[in-house]
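Subject: Sanity check before I submit

Could someone independently write out the structure tokens for this chain? I want to compare against mine line by line before I put it in a report. The sequence has 222 residues.
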Amino acid sequence: MTSSDDENPNPLTIGEEFIQSPNHLPPTTSSIDFDGLLNPPLQLQQDLKEGCGGQLWPAGIVLAKYLLRTKRDELKGKTILELGAGGGLVGLALALGTPLTHPLFITDQAAMLPLMLQNMALNCLSGRVHAAILEWGGAVPPAVPTRPDVVLAADCVYFEPAFALLLETMGRLMGPETVCYFCFKKRRRADGQFVKRARKMFAVRDVGDDPEKGLWEREGLF
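---
Independent answer below. Compare away.
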């Protein structure tokens, strides 16, 4: 994820204006190989008509690369659920690049369901990935597994009133053996409050085995 010119920009460097106005990008399909970690590459439709969740965000790239690089063997026998999946970047990348033995679940609000299903079809993953509606703070639907082995969350910290709802949902889903891989960009001071609350509920540890940690830390990613 390095670059030196305007034609191939660093995917971690996304201006803050994208947070404020989610309507500038037309629908487009990207082919993403995560710097050669995924072959064939992931095909991802981006569409902002239902909100910023339909866009590819830096934390998703960072989290997917980390898991593909360091956790493939550990994850293949696990039950995995992604929260706030948007178009499904992280979950679909793992399903495409890891020989999973259980279906992987990607979840988000109802408005994101068509985009999740579209991206599953683009990558021929409909038999290996299940998409479901999961509203933070609401009841966990019967189709969504509770106490999964692994929970994924990329760039789910962006709207302060939703912090408590997200933590509530994480508390309902996660058991004592669940591992949550969580990555987000710290954009404002209030985002640090989410981390403080999370540390009171869960055992939170920083990743220490990512060779690109210095790069994404400089970009304000946690």
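---
OP: Matches mine. For the report I'm noting this point. The mean pLDDT is 84.
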